[in-house]
Design goal:
The complex is a heterodimer of chains A (about 500) and B (about 325).
Chain A lengths: L9 E12 L2 E12 L3 E5 L6 H8 L7 E6 L2 E2 L5 H6 L2 E4 L11 H8 L11 H11 L15 H14 L4 E5 L7 H16 L3 E5 L3 H7 L2 E6 L2 E7 L5 H8 L20 E10 L5 E6 L3 E5 L6 H8 L5 E7 L2 E2 L6 H6 L1 E4 L3 H5 L6 H6 L3 H4 E2 L2 E2 L1 H14 L16 H15 L4 E5 L7 H16 L3 E5 L3 H7 L2 E6 L2 E7 L5 H8 L3 H11 L1
Helix pairs in contact in A: 3-4, 14-15, 15-16, 17-18
Chain B lengths: L4 H21 L6 H26 L7 H15 L9 H25 L4 H19 L4 E3 L2 H8 L1 E2 L2 E2 H19 L1 H11 L1 H6 L4 H27 L1 E2 L7 H10 L11 H17 L8 H31 L10 H5 L1
Antiparallel strand pairs in B: 1-4, 2-3
Helix pairs in contact in B: 1-12, 2-7, 2-10, 2-11, 2-12, 3-4, 3-5, 3-10, 4-5, 4-10, 6-10, 7-8, 11-12
The chains are: A alpha/beta (about 500), B mainly alpha (about 325).
Chain lengths: ~500, ~325
């Protein structure tokens, strides 16, 4: 571990940075300083503002308040090009590759224009570069044909090619195996020894603590302090990361019925970003899907809905589930509540009535004609039960609040009657506190009718309060299963950050 | 141009096949006179198709090109009148290019600054230009200087100099696109604007320049249209869809980032050849439109075939396994 004295000059300053997206305050008065030669870790839960902070540091996002200084120079107008010229390199969590171009062309574009070799030497230069980083990757293949871990390593290589004085790494190891993680960390330590300032964002605490000099903790967009990595323990960090005040009540969890039938059984399911996954979901159960963003939870859920391509088997109520297209799961009664309400789940300009009944029109129609009165009768009672706040069922759904929009998409499984499994993706994202309880209750209500639900959420409090059981995913696999009686925010966060205590306790519970 | 050989080969094959078939039935087809006429007739579409490739490369369309060519013809009937001669013609010619530059900047402004989808933005421009043409010349009138049109049409043997010019231009443009950093940057922005921005490229400037280049080329195409009609006709340009068809048949991707100037040139020539040949067989020209439509559909399917095949092959194969998650990384 390098030891940057506080006497070394500051290479990156983020001063009193604030940023809001709409009504959500993503960052509130956050300050971070990174010295030359320092590896500065940034940790926090999902949605705590880490990526926003990096976006601002790299010039991609404009802060509402506060400033960015790179190598002592103020970044006046935010622009990635300008930040790069000041000596900043960034490896993006979702990469900056152009998948249709070759590896060589991608590397070439990452170089500052003045340092690019003549174009005719492109392949030759790229092959040398790849060899220099000890990666056996053919440079003339399209980037899109590489594996995710190769793409992730190249993303870091691209950031290093600019020979940055400040290097930002946003979750650089989510797709890497242990060996590659080791390789990457060696590289990072080398750069720090050479005097670069490095901001390292990762949700894996042991990984972070093994390389970082200092750690800054974010919680809900607010800085919780900066600490010497050697002087702080994982437990202390976790305690700083969690502890959001509990602002919402949860429906009562019914007594666990171990003997209930298995409704959804998944075996050996795998896709591009997850797998293999085995899972059994019982009748009446709400299963939580936890993990740091980008570890395959979303893709797994969508594969079950037939949207994401996957191989392997799944059965619903004893029958084989056809997941080659969304039609198979829909017919079998497996419905997805998409987290993208505007884009996928709802027709924003259509009325509440039309949105609620779209999947059951056949049943409501007489001789092929759908009577609006029949539709309204069908949804009226349900709208009251789910406490949908609207002036009229003819109101366009986009004029409702986020929470009431979510309730409208929840009306669909209730109307269908033959739903077996609800796959909910961030069911309360962008939903105000008041409406959240209604949504939790609706989910609980529906599962007590003999269905089951899988809830993918980035909020550990929500998972702990709502679910009967939570599985934690990392790098596309289920790494831990937390039974109902152990559930709690801290327990889930520990599992997500891969803390030693969590590993120990899971070993205890498995023996 | 790794995978780009298919459109080039297909277009060349079609041009030769149609030419050979026609020659077998009408021996005057390959005569110098007819070939010269064919090449001159092709010039406007050839040039504007090169422009259209620029717009397609950045993931856009420009449907205003035909209206722009029309207003260039109309402008020529004012600025390149038969009474002007010699050096005095140069400002008149520059006026046409100026109209192209202004239109391109306007389109680019609508697309980049006002963030309109290119098809909507250029559709608006199209209406404005059409109206302006009709306001300037309510009916075809105003002869255009024959000194100018003679220069434009001058040929060596049966080949117009201008044709040699566009061939060289297209070859150079393809070389630039696939063998230089500027071309690489253009393709990168067309393929993925977000990643390009992250890499510090000024995507906005590149898109802006692409639309300006498209319009400037369209205004140059306007010169050749003027040479063809020789009079200020307000309703002459109709190459908007044909130019998009030529670019696509030539291998340009509708999603941006892929395309070939030479391919567009070949396809534009082929489309003109169809128009030229049908009357020889006493076929109505409506068939030309239908043929072109069917060809575009067939070509799009054919060009996607390699991708379709890999997709089907991949679907059969199991996805690659992810790296194992073990305790090592967590306790490291």
């Amino acid at each position: 571990m390098s030891t940057p004295g506080p006497d070394r000059p500051v290479a990156l300053t983020l001063g009193h940075v604030s940023k809001a997206f709409g009504a959500v305050q993503a960052l509130h008065d956050v300050s971070v300083e990174c010295h030359e030669g320092e590896i500065h870790a940034l940790v926090g839960e999902n949605g705590s503002g880490k990526s926003t902070l990096l976006g601002i540091a790299s010039g991609f996002l404009a802060p509402d308040e506060g400033f960015v200084e790179i190598g002592g120079t103020r970044l006046k107008r935010p622009s990635p090009a300008r930040a790069r010229r000041l000596g900043l390199g960034m490896a993006y969590q979702d990469y900056s590759h152009i998948l249709d171009l070759t590896v060589a062309e991608n590397l070439y574009l990452a170089l500052p224009p003045r340092e690019r070799p003549p174009h005719r030497r492109l392949e030759h230069w790229a092959a040398e570069t790849v060899a220099e980083f000890d990666l056996g990757i053919p440079v003339s293949t399209p980037m899109g044909s590489l594996s995710l871990s190769e793409r992730q390593l190249l993303e870091v290589v691209k950031a290093l090619l600019t020979r940055p004085k400040v290097l930002l790494l946003d979750e650089p190891t989510t797709a890497l195996g242990p060996e590659a993680v080791g390789k990457l960390q060696t590289l990072v330590l080398e750069r720090a020894r050479a005097g670069d300032a490095i901001i390292y964002v990762s949700h894996r605490l042991p990984e972070v603590l093994s390389v970082a000099d200092r750690v800054t903790v974010l919680r809900d967009g607010v800085g919780q302090g900066t600490f010497d990595a050697a002087a702080v323990s994982e437990e202390q960090l976790i305690a700083l990361m969690i502890g959001r005040p509990l602002d919402v009540a949860f429906p009562v969890r019914p007594a666990p019925a171990e003997e209930a039938d298995v409704l959804l059984a998944v075996s050996g399911l795998r896709g591009e970003r997850f797998g293999p996954i085995d899972l059994a979901l019982r009748k009446g159960e709400i299963l939580g899907l936890a993990g740091a963003e980008g570890n395959g939870q979303l893709q797994f859920l969508r594969a079950l809905a037939g949207i994401e391509r996957a191989t392997g088997g799944a059965t619903c109520d004893g029958r084989e589930l056809d997941i080659r297209s969304p039609l198979g799961p829909l017919r079998a009664g497996v419905v997805l509540l998409s987290g993208d309400r505007r884009g996928e789940a709802l027709f924003p300009v259509l009325s509440v009535r039309a949105n609620a009944t779209v999947q059951v029109l056949r049943r409501l129609a007489r001789l092929g004609v759908v009577g609006h009165r029949r539709e309204r009768r069908a949804i009226g009672d349900l709208a009251r039960r789910l406490r949908v706040r609207m002036a009229s069922p003819e109101q366009p759904v986009q004029s409702l609040s986020g929470g009431n929009q979510q309730k409208v998409s929840l009306m669909r499984p209730f109307l269908r009657g033959d739903v077996k499994v609800i796959l909910a993706e961030e069911p309360t994202q962008g939903v105000d506190v008041g409406a959240r309880f209604d949504i939790y209750e609706a989910l609980r209500m529906k599962t007590q009718e003999g269905t089951a639900a899988v809830v993918k959420s980035s909020d550990p409090i929500e998972l702990a309060g709502l679910c009967d059981r939570v599985v934690v995913m990392s790098r596309g696999r289920i790494v831990e299963e937390i039974p109902g009686h152990e559930l709690g925010e801290r327990r889930i966060v520990e599992a997500i950050v891969g803390s030693r205590s969590a590993v120990a306790s899971s070993q205890r519970s498995s023996t | 141009m790794r995978r780009g050989w298919l459109p080039l080969a297909l277009m060349t094959g079609l041009i030769v096949a149609l030419g050979a078939y026609t020659q077998a039935h009408h021996s005057e087809f390959l005569g110098k006179l007819n070939l010269n006429g064919l090449l001159l007739e092709a010039m406007p579409l050839l040039i504007v198709s090169l422009g259209q490739v620029c717009a397609l490369l950045v993931g856009g369309f420009d449907v205003s090109v035909a209206a722009l060519m029309t207003i260039c013809v109309v402008t020529a009937s004012f600025t390149l009148t038969p009474t002007i001669s010699g050096i005095a013609l140069i400002p008149g010619a520059l006026a046409l290019v100026g109209v192209g530059l202004a239109t391109g900047a306007f389109n680019a402004f609508l697309i980049r600054v006002l963030k309109l989808p290119s098809i909507v933005a250029t559709l608006g421009t199209l209406s404005v230009l059409e109206g302006a043409s009709l306001a300037l010349r309510a009916y075809p009138t105003g002869p255009i200087n024959t000194d100018v049109t003679n220069v434009l049409d001058s040929s060596v043997s049966f080949v117009p100099y201008a044709f040699i010019g566009v061939v060289v231009l297209a070859l150079a443009a393809d070389f630039w696109l696939y063998r230089t950093r500027g071309g690489l940057a253009l393709r990168a922005v067309g393929l993925d604007a977000t990643s390009s921005r992250r890499l510090g490229m000024s995507a906005g400037r590149i898109i802006f320049l692409a639309f300006v280049a498209c319009s400037v080329l369209a205004s140059i195409a306007g010169f050749y249209l003027a040479a063809e009609v020789q009079v200020g006709s307000p309703i002459i340009g109709n190459q908007a869809l044909e130019s998009i068809a030529a670019a696509v048949l030539g291998g340009a991707s509708l999603a941006g980032g892929k395309g070939s100037f030479v391919g567009a040139l070949l396809a534009a020539f082929f489309l003109t050849e169809i128009d030229n040949v049908l009357p020889l067989f006493q076929q109505p020209t409506e068939y030309a439109d239908m043929t072109i439509g069917i060809l575009i559909l067939l070509a799009l399917v054919l060009y996607q075939a390699p991708e379709l095949i890999t997709r089907i092959r991949n679907a059969r194969r199991r996805p690659a396994p992810l790296p194992a998650t073990t305790g090592e990384a967590r306790t490291g």
